[in-house]
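Form 12-C: Joint structure prediction
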Amino acid sequence: MATEYKMPQLGLTMTEGTVTKWFKAVGDTVAVGEVLVEVATDKITNQLESNLAGVLLEIIVDEGATAPVQAVIAIIGQPGEKVATATKAAPVVTELLQTTAPEVAEPRGAYSAAVSIAGRIKASPYAKKLAAAQSVDLSVVTGTGPGGRIVERDIREYAMQAPTKASPLAVKVAAEHQVNLAEIQKETRIMKADVLAAVKPATVAKPLVGIRKVIAERMALSWNTAPHVHLTVEVDMTAVLGLKENLVRATGQKASVTELVVKCAAYALREMPVINASLMDNQIVMHEAVNIGIAVALDDGLIVPVVRNADQKNLSQLREAIVSLGGKARSGKLSPDEISGGTFTVTNLGMFGTDHFTPVINPPESAILGVCRIVEKPVVLAGTIVTRPMSNFILGFDHRLIDGAVGAKFMARLRELLENPSLLLI
Amino acid sequence: MREINYGQAISEAMHEEMVRDGSVIILGEDMGVMGSVFGLTKGFMDEFGAHRVIDTPISEAGFTGMAVGAAMRGLRPIVELMYVDFAPICLDPIVNQAAKMRYMTGGQVKVPLVIRAPGGAGRRNAGQHSQSLEALFTHIPGLKVVAPATPYDAKGLLKSAIREDDPVMFLEHKILYAQKGEVPETEYLIPLGKADVKRQGKDVTIIAYSRQVVFALEAAKELAAQGIEAEVIDLRTLVPLDWETIETSVKKTHRVVVVQEAVKRGGYAGEIATQIMENAFDELDAPVKRVAGLNVVLPFSPALEDAAYPSAKDIVAGVRDVVK
Amino acid sequence: MDGQTAMKFLREMLKIRYFELKAAELFMQGLMAGNIHTCAGQEAAEVGACQALRETDFITSTHRGHGHCIAKGGQVDIMMAELFGKATGYCKGKGGSMHIVDVGLGILGANGIVGAGIPIATGSALASKIRGADEVTLAFFGDAASNQGSFHEALNMASAWKLPCVFVCENNKYGVSVCIDRVCNVEDIATRAVAYNIPGVVVDGNDVFEVYEAVKTAVERARSGEGPSLVECKTYRHRGHYEGDPQIYKTPEEVGYWKDRDPILRLRQKMTDANLATVVELDVLEAEVKAEIEAAVEFAKQSPYPAVDQVTMDVYANDNERSVIR
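Section 2 - Result
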C-alpha cells in the first residue's frame, strides 16, 4: 500500500523545512534505514532515514522547495502501484530514524541538535556526569540518542576528538569546584591555578532564626496585610532646636529632638484618635492610651521599646524613659512589657543622614512616623531666601483604617506643633 | 551434579527443615493425605504425623489467622495458599496481623511464619488462578517477600525463610515447578535479600525475578547475537531488595530494563525503577524501562493469555528501546 | 463465695472501672491521641472469665481490651503509659489503646480488627496441642465479631480438631451503633455453637460469679482435651463505642435498666448482704484502687515519649534497617 512520507517535525520550533537533497529518484528502491532525503531548517540540516521499504513512487516537494511540517513530501509504495488519493486522506504515522549531521564545523557555542527551544540541552544524566568529569561543554556535542539526546557515546567520542587542554589536576580541581573549564579563556594549557582563579566565592547561607526571623515574619505580615500609604511633610525645625537649647540651659541636662518629636506626636494623636487605632479581628480598636514605640537599631536587628502614656509625660519624663529604654534595648535587658502594647511608632534615621524613607508599620499599630536628618536649606520667607534647619517627616499608615486626607491632616497638625511648640501649652 | 525440579527443591527444603526443627508445621488445603495439589508434601503426613502436616478446611482466612497465633506462640508454621489468588481472602491475617504484630507490640513478638503461594500465568487458569500479586505484599512493611526462579535458589531460600523470625511471603511460579536445575545433595542456605547476577554483560542491565528470569536469559542470548551484551540480575528476594547488586550493575551498564510478569500499573518494577532514578540518576544513559504484563485480567484462551504477559521477545524489544 | 475471693474479684473490677473512667476523662482533656474504647459496665465478664484461667493460660482481646488486659494481670501504669504513647508503655508507644500486649502474662494482644483475635487464639491453642502443653487459650470478642467469618472459621476448626480454647462473647448489645438484634436473627449468640457441635451457654455477664463458674467449666473441658466451648455473657457497654460517641442509638430506659444492674454495685451489695465485707472496707478498697490509678496516670505523665529514631525500629526481627529502607 502506498504510504505518505511527510515533512518531519525536527524540534519544537520547527514549522517548515526545505528539501535540500533527495538521495533517491522516483522508481528507486528504498530500504528501511536508508538515507532518503536531506532537510534543512533555519537551525540545522538533517539527513533522514526511512523505516519504510518499497519504491519511491512520487516526489512531491522537490529539492530547494520548502514545505510545512507534516506536509506530504513523497509517496513510497510497491512497484507499479498507482498513487491513490485515498492514501492522502488516511495519514499513516511515519516514524523516522533520524541521524543528525550538524553543518560542518559548528562554531563553539552554536546550537546543536540537542538544543531545544528553551536552549535546554537534552542529555542523559550519565552523559552530563561524564561531560562534567571530562570538562566537555555539552552545547558543542551532538546528540545521537533518541530525539537527539546526548548519550554516553557522544561524550566519549567528543572527548576523543577534542582532548581537554588542561592538566589532569586542573580537571580534577575543576570538577571539585564545579568550574566549567570551557569558560576559562587561555591560549595555553589550563593549570590548577587557572581553575582556582575562576572559582567563584561561595555564597553563605545561614538559617533564619531568632530576632531576624521575628522581624522577617512581622514585616512580611504588615506589608502583606496593611496597604501602606506614605506621605511626607517638610518641617522647619528652628523652633524645636530653639526649645531644645532653652531646655538644656534651663535644666542643665541633656535634651534631644526625639522627645520633642514624641511629645508633639503624642499631642496630635490624642487629638486624632483614629491614628492611634488598630484593626484586630475585623474590629477597629481605638486605644485609650497613647503608647509610643521608639525604634532602636541593634547590631543584629531592630527592637521597638514602648513609652507608655507618652501624652501624659512631660519632656524630662519622656527623655528619661527614652534614654532608659534605649540603654536596655542595646544591652538586651528589655522586659516583655517594655516591648509590647505600642499604639504608634516613631523611627528616626536622621543620625544616618537619611533624607527620606518609607517606614513599615509595626503591627497591630496603624501608623508609623519616620524622622529624617535636619539639614540647613534655603527657604523663602516673606519673599526673602534664607537658610533654615529643615527636616522631612514621613507618616506611613494603614489605608484600611486611615484615609489619605486624615493622614495629611495629622501631618499638618504635627508640623504646626513642631514649628510652634508653644501650642503644646494650650 | 544431580538435577531436580523446582517443585522437588521446595519439597526437599520443607522436609529438611521439618526434620531439623520440631516446631515447623505445615498448614493448608490438601497438604496431608493428598500431599498437596502440586505433590510437594507427598508422604509428609505419614512421616511427621497429622498434627504437623495439617489438612485444613477450605478456610484461608481462618487457618492463616491461626498460623499467626501459632507463630506468636513459637511454632514455625508453613502455610500454603493453593494459589496466590486466594491471598485476598486472607489479607487481614497477613497484612493487619502477621506483618504488624512485631512493630505494634514494640518488638515483643516474633511471627516466624512462611506463606507459600504459587502464582503466575501460563497454565490457562484464567483470571482467578493466574495472577502475580507480589506488589500487594512488597507494599506492606513487616513482610519479607521472596520470589525464586531456579530449583537451587528455591530450596536455599525456602530453608532460610523457614528459619527467619519474620513473616515471609514465599511466592512460587506454577510453570517453574517442572523446571529442572542443579541442586546439590548437601545442605546449603541462601540468605534472604541477596540478588544473583545470572549473566554478566556490559551494555544493559535486565532486572527480573521468578519466571521472568528464564525469559530474561533467553532474551540475553538473542541480544548477544545482535551484539548487545545484557547483564541479568535475578533479584530472588524482593523485600529486602539487594540495592548494592543493582547499583553495581547500573554503574557498569548505565541502561536498565526491569521485568515483571505482573500487570504493569503499580507493580514492583516501578518501585525498582524509581529507586534507581532516585539513587543513581547520574548513572543513567537512558530512561529506565519496564517490561510488564498488560493492565488486564488474565484471559483463559491461550491466544489471549500469551499476549497478556511478557515473553523473551518483549524483553528483547524493551532492551532495544533503551540501547538506542 | 468467700470473702477473700469476692474482695479479689471486686478489686480487679474496680481497677478496670476506674482505669476506664480515668482514661475517658484524660481523653476528654485532650491528653490522649487517637481513639479510646472503654469497657465500663462489662467488668464482671472480663474478671469472671480471666479468674477461671491459670497464669500460664493465654487470651486474645479486642479493640475494647483494657479490661481483659487488667483482668489477666496487666499493669495499669504500663498500660496507661501506652495510652499516652510513651516509651514506657507496653508497646513502647507504638500500639496505643487498642494493642496492649504482654506475652509473658499470656496476653497475646488486643486487636484493632473486629474478630481478628479469634483465629489467633485458635492458633495459640493449636500450638499448645501440638506441643502437648496443657495451656488453654481464651478468645474475648463482642457480639458483632460473631458475624465475622473469622469467628465461624475459627470455631469450626477448633471444634473439628478439639483445640483447647474457650470463646467468650461479651454481648454488650452494640457493634458501634448497631444493635445486635437488627443484624443477627438468633436470640442468643451462644446458639451458634450448635453449628459447630460444641457447648454454648448463656450467662448473666454482669454477675461475676456466674461468669466465673461457666468459664471455669469451659476451661476444664478444654484442658482435658474435649475441645472448645462458647460462653455468651449478656452485658452492657455503659459508655459510647468511642469517647465522644453521642450514643443516639440508646434509649434512657435501656441505659437506666443496665445502670441498675451495674456489675460492681451488684457485687458490693452481695458482699455487704452476705456480711463478707463492710461498707467501710469496700470504700477503703475503692480508695486504694483509685490511688493506684492516679499513680499510673502520674507514671504515664512523667514518662518520656519515644525517641524519634524508634520510628523505624522493630518493623522486622532480622535485617531491620535494610528491610525498612529497601
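Section 3 - Comments
The longest strand of chain C covers residues 165-171. Chain C touches chain B through 53 residues (CB under 8 Å).
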